[in-house]
Structure to design on (244 residues):
């Protein structure tokens, strides 16, 4: 007897044409396939059947695929931003007498991820070289400082700073460096109604990010990929297998 279906599953993927291992692509909240068919109809002009189709020439279009994710690792973030994730260097960088022009407001330094315990600001134009930390604020994460209104260094003068970075592990992504994401994917699924195992194979899909992330949302982040399935020689565009 036919029954309704509700599926859950894990989506795995890798770059198309790669020999890399597959990785879990994150928590999938939507996975939708759709197919448009263009139809050229010859309509009747008869008295009693005017407008009815006499002949129909149907041309199937490409299968479209849309996926939404609400969990992210670094590769998931890279896909959402259409870029590549690069691991940060974890070796602390030593900073020695880096010049800085004094101005009002927050001043951007040449380094981020600064170790505040090692940060020293110096004024070479006065005999008492080191500028007391009470004369400025340091944002070590962004690598920015702001002088107090009563600070000794005058506007447009040059001071120097020294210290080290923390060398924290992490990654960075330059967004929009990729025009498309060719992927090979499969869904390791399960019908929640019958308990049967099902696998959805997607040998070749060319996807792009929808580019939509509300960075300040109180809800869970969600980002999507959309694109079309490609027919490779000797392979189906998509294959669904269900086991008893």
């Amino acid at each position: 007897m036919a029954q309704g279906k509700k599926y859950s599953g894990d989506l795995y993927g890798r770059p198309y044409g790669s020999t890399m291992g597959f990785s879990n692509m994150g928590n999938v909240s939507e996975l939708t396939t759709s197919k448009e068919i263009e139809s050229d109809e010859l309509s009747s002009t008869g008295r009693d059947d005017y407008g009815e189709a006499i002949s129909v020439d149907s041309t199937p279009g490409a299968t479209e695929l849309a996926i939404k994710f609400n969990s992210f690792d670094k590769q998931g973030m890279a896909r959402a931003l259409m870029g590549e994730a690069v691991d940060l260097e974890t070796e602390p960088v030593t900073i020695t007498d880096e010049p800085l022009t004094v101005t009002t407001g927050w001043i951007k330094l040449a380094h981020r991820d600064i170790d505040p315990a090692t940060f020293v600001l110096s004024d070479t134009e006065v005999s008492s070289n080191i500028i007391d930390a009470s004369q400025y604020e340091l944002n070590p994460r962004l690598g920015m400082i702001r002088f107090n209104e009563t600070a000794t260094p005058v506007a447009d003068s040059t001071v120097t700073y020294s210290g080290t970075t923390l060398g924290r592990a992490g990654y960075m992504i330059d967004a929009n460096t990729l025009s498309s994401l060719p992927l090979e994917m499969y869904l390791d699924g399960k019908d929640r109604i019958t308990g049967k195992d099902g696998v959805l194979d997607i040998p070749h899909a060319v996807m792009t990010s929808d580019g939509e992330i509300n960075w300040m949302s109180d809800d869970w982040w969600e980002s999507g990929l959309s694109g079309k399935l490609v027919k490779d020689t000797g392979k189906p565009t998509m294959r669904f297998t269900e086991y008893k």
Notes: The chain has one helix and 16 strands. Residues 74-81 form the longest helix (8 residues).
